[in-house]
Amino acid sequence: MTRYISPARLQRLGMLGMNCRNVRYISRYNDRANYPLVDNKLKTKLLAEDLGVATPRLRLVVRTQHEISDLGRRLAGLEGFAIKPAKGSGGKGILVIAGRDGEQFRRPSGATLTLAELQRHLSNILAGLYSLGGTPDLAIVEDLIQPDPAFADYSFQGVPDIRIILFRGYPVMAMLRLATRASNAKANLHQGALGVGLDLASGQALNAVQFGRPIRIHPDTGADLLGLQVANWEDLLQLAARCYELAGLGYMGADLVVDAVRGPLLLELNARPGLAIQVANGMGLLPRLQHLEARRRLHHSPAARVAYAIHAFRRRDLPAPATTVSGASAQQATAPAAGPADDRADRPIDRPVRQQVGQLVGQPADRVTDAAG
Amino acid sequence: MNQPPSDPPDPAADAEPRSWLSPALRAQLPFYVGVLLLTLVGITLAWVRHIELGIPWFPGAERPVWLVEARVDFIATGSPVLASLDLPSQPPGFRIVSEQATSPGYGFAIVDEQGNRRGEWSKRSADGPQTLFYKVQFVPVRPGEDNDVPAGDQPTPRARPVFWEEPEATAAEQLIAAAYARSSTPESLTRELIKLLAPETADQNAALLLAESDRATLLTRLLNSAEVPARLARGLALQDARRRQSLRTFVEVWADGRWLTFDPRTGQLGLPKDVLLWQRVGSSLLDVTGGLESDVRFAMLRQTVPALQLARADWQGAGLALFSLYQLPIEEQGMFRVLLLLPLGALVVAFMRIIVGVRTSGTFMPVLIAVAFLQTSLLPGLIAFVTVVGAGLLLRGYLSALNLLLVARIATLILIVIFITSAISVLGYHLGFNTGLTMSIFPTVILAWTIERMSILWEEEGAHEVMVQGGGSLLVAVLAYAIMQAPLASHLTFNFPELHLVVLALILLIGRYTGYRLSELRRFRAMADYE
User: Fold this and answer.
1) Which residue in chain A has the smallest CA separation from B354?
2) Given an 8 Å threshold on Cβ–Cβ distance, is B9 in contact with A14?
């Protein structure tokens, strides 16, 4: 791999740079008045519930230091939960409790915490240790997300999440983030989580990167990342598209998870989504953004926007998973083939189909030449 | 990085014809015009001040200066002494920069008698040989900024009445008539008279008149008789390191509303180069009452002085000088010197973060560190900074265990930083490094925040990220220091504060830069595989 890439090539690839993102998209399309909505997870959550956007269930809000002393009683009855700072960014300060060992709280890694340690963590959150600019914060306690077994082979411990970039309400690019041992089971790309670019039309894996370098096999589980296909993809897109009505930001990122029981849930919104999604997808954002900027009339309903995005941003160079199916109809055609036809739950596409996809996709070398062509 | 980032390839827009001025660019035109205006105003103002006030562009610029010393000797007779020497005022082609008189025991004053400046030394009683000095510095005036009083401002002088005795009266009359017949203007009359008086061509009349007085005085008298205002002027030929020089006599003739200088020996019009007209108005060069055998001699020396110093000496009263920071008290000037350097540091930060993409800890922390480096000089400053932050990070580790609230933790860190800096200062003093290591310069609160941020960074992102951001901050700080400590930078920012408009324009331009950062060329390098 070359050490540097020329700006002319980046431009040909339509890569969006940090400066361009800030000047042309964030400052032009994002109204600052709406930032508090997305920078505060509690506000996002309450608003999302009002608008019928599903989020992990809120169990507890801790606003003041004295509420912390009462923590043990208030957590009674909660088996697994996640503690989050409302204004945290980049996953900072999130503490996941998978279950209990008697008096102790057990983390997904198996380590245990005492109640006092939990209380100290909450106290740090309230003091603003994890918030932007160190401002005082509050902590929210949410239901634990039940990992979708479909991703079990692809993620090391943590729950994978799906980042979808929305521009003027249209989904324009998507990426699945998978935790690795290197990333401490966090889905944080800086720390070594995997970024898997997803075809916007089908939810099918296009390409994967770790630390900005292409990768094919999950370093911890050994799964072939290119064989991955996200089930019920269109539902995820619909959920993401509804966030535009929620936050009113023209350029934003929506982080979604798939709960084994409740289906797609909105985790958080981001007014300044990062640029690594382009490397994960192996393509730049600019052509898609400019395509939408050039549109005079926009679709009003989220469903229409999703349909348009699927139509406009389909990867035509992608080998179709099967001869007859492509694009939005992919899961509808493949899911019944894999499981019971009436099962609308978040049942993944079963292994045989995934393998089939992987086989069809073939060698990475083929993919590269295809993509280049 | 330099192509306009306006038209990336867009499959949808491929069909449209592209003009060099895209619509997006046209919408931004007012912005770019504003930036251009700022730049122009800044540079023009600086240029005008450079021309008008002579502020040099470069800190080391020097200009030649003539130091002339007039030495007056006489023998006092024991009675009250008053020595009066004609002093130059506004000599054409030169400007007086400074003057002073040295003469022990004498009172000295400069008096102005109808445009004639005279220096007067006075003493109640003096005996024996006396020596008085008058020193003056002249700077040659560049062509175009001649400070000679414009013609319109001078009252037209009248020809002085001249009294001739016989037989000189007849001789003069005949000479004037002869010259008058062969001339048409005051200049040509002067030239003809000089010719008639020249030794080779002198006739009886000329010989008679020349026997009575010297040529220059005679010429002035003849011209005034012919109703042409004329006067004697005395000039000094400037040659480096000459002593015991006397003044040469010239004749100034009023013609066409201005004084023309003639050399009475050659008839040459105009003042020779490097001749300083010392005396133009008064009748006598030196008058001494209470002394005998008075004499005045001149010595001169060519010097160079800093052009800036020269310009400052000239500023008094000039309109443009109102904008000068030199009018502030010295203490505030020192403060402003640093303050006016800050925009350069801010420019460096903007450039490094937006164009290069260096990650720093705290946006403008590097500038403050660079300012501290200005006081401590680079190496001691770097060592001190790394020591304080390193020690602070170690102690901050213990603070983590104490489980303090954020504000209390920062407050504790401020105390720790102060302890460490005092310890380093005392230690440095005992080791003999007290000169450069003025630790108190470092911004304590900023250091405390830096330590806190780096510590959190360490816990959350690992040591690597701390090194990246800490190294980035130091790199930017050193770069900002390198630019801010350049003598040219401090000279330009302080003497031409209007140049900050140009800095502002640059920062605005950087703020609208939408191209790739240099670091993104590496960050996105994997994209090379997908093209």
Assistant:
1) A19
2) yes
Given a contact cutoff of 8 angstroms between Cβ atoms, the answer to whether A86 and A58 are in contact is no
- Residues of chain B with Cβ-Cβ distance to A275 below 8 Å are 520
Q: Element (H or E) spanning B339, and its range?
A: helix B330-339
Tell me which chain B residues have a C-beta less than 8 angstroms from the C-beta of A368: 529-530
| A3/B461 CB distance under 8 A | no
Look at residue B266 in the predicted model and tell me its pLDDT: 76
Virtual CA dihedral for B74, B76, B81, B85, nearest 10 degrees? 0
Q: Measure A30 CA to nearest chain B CA, in Å.
A: 17
CA distance B99 to B76: 25
Residues of B in contact with A10 (CB under 8 A): 516, 520-521, 524, 527
pLDDT over 70 at B497, yes or no: yes
* Residue-range domain boundaries for chain B: 61-157+229-323, 332-521
Size of interface A-B (CB pairs under 8 A): 131
Among B498, B465, B489, smallest CA distance to B371 is for B489
- Residue-wise pLDDT for B377-402, tens only, equals 888 888 888 888 898 888 888 887 77
**Phi, psi for A229 (deg, rounded to 5):** -140, 125
Of A325, A272, A372, the residue nearest A21 (C-alpha): A272
Taking 60 as the threshold, does the pLDDT of residue B433 lie above it?
A: yes
Cα separations in angstroms, B170 against A68, B175, B207, B509: 125, 9, 13, 83
From chain B, pick out residues whose CB is under 8 angstroms from the CB of A195.
none
CB contact under 8 A, B528 and A127: no
- Name the residue facing B514 among A9, A23, A282 (closest C-beta): A23
Out of A4, A92, A287, the one facing B522 most closely (by C-beta) is A4
* Residue pLDDT, tens place only, B184-243: 888 888 888 887 777 777 777 777 777 777 777 878 888 888 788 888 888 888 877 777
Question: Quick one: pLDDT at residue B142?
Answer: 64
Question: Does A17 contact B516 at a Cβ distance shorter than 8 Å?
Answer: yes
Say if CB B224 and CB B233 are below 8 A apart. Answer: no
Which pLDDT band holds residue B90 (cuts at 50, 70, 90)? confident
**Structure ipTM:** 0.73
Interatomic CA distance for residues B487 and B162, integer angstroms: 62
Interface of A with B in 5-44 (CB under 8 A): 5-15, 17-20, 23-24
What pLDDT digit, counting tens, does each position of B509-528 carry?
998 888 899 999 988 888 88
CA dihedral for B472, B473, B476, B477, sign (positive or negative): negative
Q: Which residues of chain A have pLDDT under 70?
A: 1-2, 132-134, 185, 316-373
The model's pLDDT over A290-312, given as tens digits with 9 standing for 90+, comes to 999 988 888 889 999 999 999 88
Beta carbons of B39 and B502 less than 8 angstroms apart: yes
Q: Which residue of A has its CA nearest to B523?
A: A212
Does residue A228 contact residue A196 with C-beta atoms inside 8 Å? yes
**Sequence-distant (≥ 6) Cβ neighbours of residue A122 within 8 angstroms:** A62, A68, A71, A83, A139
What pLDDT sits at residue B316?
57
A111 touches chain B (CB under 8 A): no
Question: Which domains are delineated in chain A?
Answer: 7-34+150-372 (3.30.470.20), 57-144 (3.30.1490)
Mean pLDDT, chain B, whole residue set: 79
Instruction: Please say if the pLDDT value at position B148 is more than 60.
Output: no
Q: Which residue of B has its CA nearest to A17?
A: B516
